[in-house]
Write a structure and sequence with these properties.
Blueprint lengths: L5 E3 L15 E3 L3 E3 L9 H4 L9 H23 L2 H15 L7 H7 L45 E2 L5 E2 L5 E9 L5 E10 L5 E11 L2 E2 L9 E6 L4 E3 L6 E3 L6 E10 L4 H5 L3 E3 L3 E3 L5 E3 L8
Antiparallel strand pairs: 1-3, 2-3, 4-6, 5-6, 6-7, 7-11, 7-12, 8-9, 8-10, 8-13, 13-14, 13-15, 15-16
Length: about 300
């Protein structure tokens, strides 16, 4: 007889016994098989009761589930700005250096039509720039001279004489009244240019070919401003000589130089001579005949 789960491997009556099902031979007589799991009893299968996990185990499972849900939610709710800034820094550190692309420069530069934000409480708004007035050519007040010379008892050249200053002409004039034994000397200047001119003028009396000095104005007139197309007259009263002119021929002389001319430069300027008067010993004055054509 064989025991349960064993196969009798003994050969009887000189026969041969084949071992099947891969069992193990025990004591050269039996083949041992592992026990198969017992089939559940159909009568008791439906009556089994499910055993639920204990309260502690249930709490651990619930806590683990909550943590598993909270971690993704927390990651999703993190602010994106730090991540974007970190990603941007990483991209800049990895990207090769080089000139910015036109599109990047255009995006970074503010739009000209964008309105700048108002200044904060601690930043004062810059005052509006005052436009600088355009420079205009300076114009000075014309020098006030004497009134135009009278025609009676005054001898002037018959034409305007040139001077050392361009666009300035001159007429040296002499005044002598019969019976007074006195003579006055002066000059008229004309500006024929398109702009205002400033000159230096010297007037001297000439008595019998001797040059003297004006008693009240021995030096030259300086800073004489003459407007375009105007005539300036020196004053006869500033250069009046009396008494010593009887028995002499007298006439006026003048020189004109630039605004900043020195006395020496004025003395080197072009000389102009006026018409002469002959004063007799009794004081009678007559205009001398022309000695130079056009004088």
């Amino acid at each position: 007889m064989t025991e349960p789960d064993r196969q009798d491997n003994a050969a009887y009556d000189g026969g041969t016994q084949n071992i099947t099902h891969g069992g193990n031979v025990i004591n050269n007589n039996f083949n041992l098989y592992p026990s198969a799991p017992a089939e559940p009893d159909a009568s008791t299968a439906g009556s089994r009761v499910r055993v639920w996990p204990s309260g502690r185990r249930l709490a651990l499972v619930a806590a683990g589930t909550a943590v598993a849900i909270a971690v993704p939610v927390t990651i999703l709710n993190l602010p994106h700005a730090p991540l974007k800034a970190a990603n941007a820094d990483s991209a800049r550190s990895v990207a090769p250096s080089g000139p910015p692309s036109p599109s990047t420069s255009a995006a970074a530069s503010p739009s000209p039509s964008a309105t700048p934000p108002p200044p904060g409480p601690e930043i004062a708004a810059a005052p509006a720039a005052t436009p600088t007035p355009s420079a205009s050519p300076s114009r000075r007040s014309a020098t006030v001279g004497s009134s135009p010379y009278p025609s009676k008892d005054v001898a002037c050249p018959t034409r305007w004489l040139p001077t050392s200053v361009m666009n300035i002409d001159m007429q040296p004039c002499t005044q002598a009244v019969s019976g007074t034994g006195a003579a006055q000397f002066g000059v008229a200047l004309r500006n024929v240019g398109p702009t205002q001119l400033v000159v230096t003028v010297s007037v001297k009396p000439v008595v019998s070919a001797t040059y003297g000095a004006c008693p009240l104005h021995p030096g030259p007139w300086r800073q004489v401003v003459i407007d375009p197309g105007k005539v300036w007259y020196s004053s006869f009263s500033d250069c009046s000589v009396s008494g010593s002119v009887k028995g002499h021929r007298v006439q006026s002389s003048a020189r004109v130089a630039g605004e900043l001319a020195s006395d020496a430069e004025v003395g080197d300027a072009k000389l102009g001579l006026g018409r002469a008067f002959d004063i007799k010993p009794d004081g009678t004055a007559t205009i001398a005949p022309l000695t130079t054509p056009g004088s």
